[in-house]
Amino acid sequence: MKKLVGAGAFVHREPNDYVEQLRTESMSVGTYSIPVGGVDDQAPHHQEEIYVVTAGRATFVTPDGAEPIGPGDVLFVPAEKEHRFVDITEDLSLLVVFAPPYSGR
């Protein structure tokens, strides 16, 4: 067992911040933080992702549409799918699970 202390907690660094808390052969877990008014500049990943919104409010956008998100929401993104967070109205903190492990931006 491993306890991930601080996973999902907002970290204020400009323009946004990703910190990995766990990596295994099959997955990785990290925290992605975007401040109010920040710009999510990520590109599609080679991994599938699960986002758990731990704090904040924003709109999640994919080619399929846009969805307002807030604490407690869980989002699944298939590998290679275009997606981003926009209209960040409260400091946004997301626990992110990647499978296979995240390989960088």
Automatic annotation (TrEMBL):
Domain of life: Bacteria
Coiled-coil features, chain-numbered ranges: none
InterPro entries, per the entry: Cupin_2, RmlC-like_jellyroll, RmlC_Cupin_sf
Pfam family, one: Cupin_2
Domain (Cupin type-2) ranges: 32-98
Gene3D superfamilies: Jelly Rolls
Name listed for the protein in its UniProt record: Cupin domain-containing protein
